[in-house]
Amino acid sequence: MTPSPVAVAHRGDPYRVRENTVASLRSALRRGADAVEIDVRLTRDGVPVLLHDRTLKRLWEHERPLSALSFDEVRGLTGGGVPALAEALETTAGHRVMVDLPGSPDVRAVRRIMGVVREAGAAERVYYCAGADAMLAVRAADPDAEIALTWTTLAPPRPVLLEAIGPRWLNYRFSLVDRPLADRVHRDGHLLSVWTPDTRRSMRRLLEAGVDSITTNRVDVLCATRASAAAPSPVRPGSHA
Predict the structure, then answer these.
(1) Which H or E element spans position 23?
(2) Cis link prior to 5 (omega < 30° from 0)?
């Protein structure tokens, strides 16, 4: 049984290993992650790969947008560093994967990504997160897909939007979350995930608020903080157990 809240490694283990790479995913799993979060976009020839940004500039020092490059060109420019989604799913076998869909992909792109997930036999362990437009595309592609709707304001999502998307999770920026918000989300029948606290203080506050999942860049710190919070308080001499 997975401990609560779920410890989700944001793009792998990015403080130690370059984000959204196979090595980063492996590092995060070694450090105790229950799940990993990855960002997926399409190359020019329709191959889903792991990359958050529109271009390769920040991580790989190449200005050209991913959408203008074939998969072979991406592999060549990055020395094989940018993995295909299929490779990432193989690397994370046996673990949950949160697939973030940056850049508001259209239904065609979403269907291609979800097709690779199905071909890998990973549909039961993959869930999807992003804003409303991308999640509407996911729902259109698969009525049974598990969705974490990313939400960035304190105003709750409109009922008509929730009905159309049918998310299992609401996914909030961690700074917005407190106990009343967590209670509201749970009362409305959803699980609450948050992103991306990296300090022990923030993690402890979120544990106390009752969130169901935490996505962080420091998954080992989260796992240690979670274990500490769950440990029973020692009985002091002279006290009654």
Answers:
(1) helix 22-30
(2) yes
Place of tokens 């370059």: 18
Q: pLDDT by residue (tens digit) across 186-219?
A: 999 999 999 999 999 999 999 999 999 999 999 9
Which residue range forms the structural domain that includes residue 15?
A: 6-230
Q: How many CB atoms lie within 10 A of CB 95?
A: 18
6-10/35-42 β-pairing: parallel
- Strands 48-50, 35-42: pairing is antiparallel
Instruction: Quickly list H helices, 78-145.
Output: 85-91, 107-119, 132-141
239 Cβ contact partners less than 8 Å away, ≥ 6 residues apart: none
Does residue 220 sit within a domain? yes
On whether the CB atoms of residues 43 and 105 are closer than 8 A, the answer is no
Q: Which pLDDT belongs to residue 241?
A: 42
- For residue 236, tell me if it sits in a domain: no
Q: Which amino acid is at 108?
A: R
Return the SS3 of 119. Answer: helix
CA distance 233 to 199: 22
pTM (two decimals): 0.95
Q: How far apart (Å, rounded) are the C-alpha atoms in residues 141 and 217?
A: 30
* CATH number of 15's domain: 3.20.20.190
Whether the pLDDT of residue 41 is over 80: the answer is: yes
Per DSSP, helices labelled H in 155-237 are: 159-165, 179-187, 200-209, 219-230
Question: Is position 239 within any domain?
Answer: no
Evaluate whether residue 195 is within a structural domain.
Answer: yes
Domain count, the chain: 1
